[in-house]
Amino acid sequence: MARNRRNITIIDGYNVINSRSDLKEISKESLEAAREKLIDYLAEYASMTDEEVVIVFDAYNLDRNKETISEKYGMKIVYTKKFQTADTYIEKQILKIARSENLKVVTDDSQIQILAASKAAQRMTSKELKAAIYNNNSKIKRKKRADFNRNFKSFPLSEELIEKIEDMKKDLEN
């Protein structure tokens, strides 16, 4: 019997931070705050997809002799070791797992994208990730609205309460 392949998405964290104006602005004040905001931002994406998310931040200029891997919201957060870029970490992961797992790589680096494609991995730019997250969020809103409407119609309510709920619905749509 064939083994189920895992869906793994590896994300170059600083590429995403630098592609989003809100995160880029935050990073000017505090890189740590921008990283945390990105992790929070990607947590919802990870929960809506059937993917193991790995966010890679390079510690190229930091005095970190070992790579550090932690977990938050079910995602792996990787800080590379000194003199290692996120790109080199991602390259190694592509070569290691692309043939055995369903791999998606989020990076703006064209060389990494070419390598990913050559190893049958999906590739996605930071802007494409942003669009995918936006689409997921739109689906969530539509589902919430549909659930609300379905639940709303199953209860006997007064006209006054129905009117208030309709107002709330209009506010949700905006």
**Major sheet size, sense and barrel closure:** 6 strands, mixed
The chain-level mean pLDDT equals 86
Radius of gyration: 20 Å
* Cross-sheet strand order for the largest sheet: 3-4-2-1-5-6
Helix content estimate: 55-70%
Class by SSE composition: alpha/beta
Tell me the number of helical segments per DSSP (H or I, 4 or more residues long): 7
Tell the overall outline.
Answer: elongated
- Distance from first to last alpha carbon: 50 Å
Strand content bin: 15-25%
Summarize the helix and strand pattern as letters.
EHHHEEEHEHEHH
How many β-strand runs? Answer: 6
Poorly predicted runs are: none
Textual characterization of the structure:
The chain is an alpha/beta fold and 174 residues long. It is built from seven helices and six strands, in the order βαααβββαβαβαα. Strands 3-4-2-1-5-6 form a six-stranded mixed beta sheet, with helices on both faces. Strand 3 (68-72) and strand 4 (75-79) form a beta hairpin. Helix 3 (31-48) packs across helix 6. The protein is elongated, with a radius of gyration of 20 Å. It starts with 6 loop residues before the first strand and ends with a helix. The relative contact order is 0.14.
Task: Identify the notable features of this structure and list them briefly.
174 residues, alpha/beta, six-stranded mixed sheet, 7 helices
